[in-house]
Amino acid sequence: MKKQLSxxxxxxxxxxxxxxxxxxxxxxxxxxxxxxxxxxxxDGNGLIGINTxxxxxxxxxxxxxxxxxxxxxxxxxGCMLSNSVCSAFWSDNxxxxxxxxxxxxxxxxxxxxxxxxxxxEVDGLVTALGDVPGTxxxxxxxxxxxxxxxxxxxxxxxxxxxxASSHSLSVPTSIKKLDNGQYLVTGTAATGKNIAVNSEPYxxxxxxxxxxxxxxRYCPGLNTQASFWLLDSAGTFNKLVQANEYARGRNEVVQTxxxxxxxxFNGSLYGVGYSSTGEIGTNYLDGRNLAAYWTLDLxxxxxxxxxxxxxxxxxxxxxxxxLQHSWAVGVNDNGYVIGNQLYRINKGQNRPVEMFVFNLNxxxxxxxxxxxxxxxxxxxxxxxxxxxNMVVGWRDSRHQTQPVVNGTNRMQEGFLLNAATGxxxxxxxxxxxxxxxxxxxxxxxxxxxHIVxxxxxxTNGTVAATAYRYNSESDLNNRSNATVVSxxxxxxxxDFKNDEPANYLVANAPVNNQTGQDGGSGGGSLFWLxxxxxxxxxxxxxxx
Length: 544
Known about the structure:
It is built from seven helices and 29 strands. By secondary structure, it is mainly β.
């Protein structure tokens, strides 16, 4: 028996000593750029972010770096908070929605870049980076006119406009280098058809019909269409092709559509984004956006038929629809499409956005892997996917349970998800390590961080994220004295895939006893707990 106990002591001691220091899965690269991360180059070297002049995002219950003129679904539903909170946002306050609307009507520059480039909307706001940081797309604002531009390998800026896109609006969303060396830019542009500049809804958007705020619900005030610009290898603009029809088009409503990303799958190029519907009602507010995808034939300058992504909750725009809008934001070369669906009715004391995954291989109804997790009506929004099937985005923070429809917005928390399996992790559980004694160590760069939004992911898995940065652990725990910074999260395992992050999980939740992966058990620490239990398992079996 003494020998058994001695052996047990040796094994337990070995297990304890085996728990050496563990590095966090993600190292935080913090350039102290104060702003909201909006994108990353495919090589992971370049990060861009956006600063906004005001806090209109809280009013619309969305993100600070959203494009409020172009993505109509971001603002069409208006404020969903309590009446007193919504009214306060429209008060004459320079920090909130009133100032956003006032500046918009006056064509005042409101947004600026941080990170790899530092520019304003007038200088040329960068909206996305390409394969390297020097390859960029964005738009320049001149009064009410927005004109898309592209830069290839730090070359000259080239305006992306022709007869269709030069009317009043063209905004790019991504740029992809093709196998033949050419570049394909996705985005949205005015069509010049039906509803156009100086039409009644255009003036309602830009001039207003109540003498003070205008009617932002009619924005962008004209028809836009999913657009694809082709550039040669030197960055010279070649041509623009646009989708031919809307998902459910109707001429009497403002129709909006955009391509948000492009991927190559089974030898074909696919664009993904959203397209308008207008099946019910009789006025300009009845348009809805549906997540859509298109096949592209660039040689013949053709965009295929607009195809709607099937969702389990049905189609927005129907009489009994649960959803207000849906939109696709990313596609990879394995055929996985990611996107989001926005509810028009209350669900679990919220009107949530829920991320979805759609597979071009099967084309079956999209799955919603984070639906009602951890509570009914929990929100989540996907932002980007890479070719290792890794998805990043943000979701309601684990401790946030208050009723959004009656109070204030919930704090968000960045997530990482495997599109193929649905396994997912909170990014805040992947930025802590363990010291030699097995104690949690979360400080990086001399600060403590809460990862709020993950907006981009590179080929090798480097993540672009917005973080709340704190000077002390006490400030982190109390959520006080935060600085908003754009950061990169550099992975310890390059080109990671499958469930590799699970081996590095260190619980870093706002409240105690939270698991890192939904349905999981704490991840990386579980290995060592299991190892510690093995000697006792052996002893019990021996005694039998």
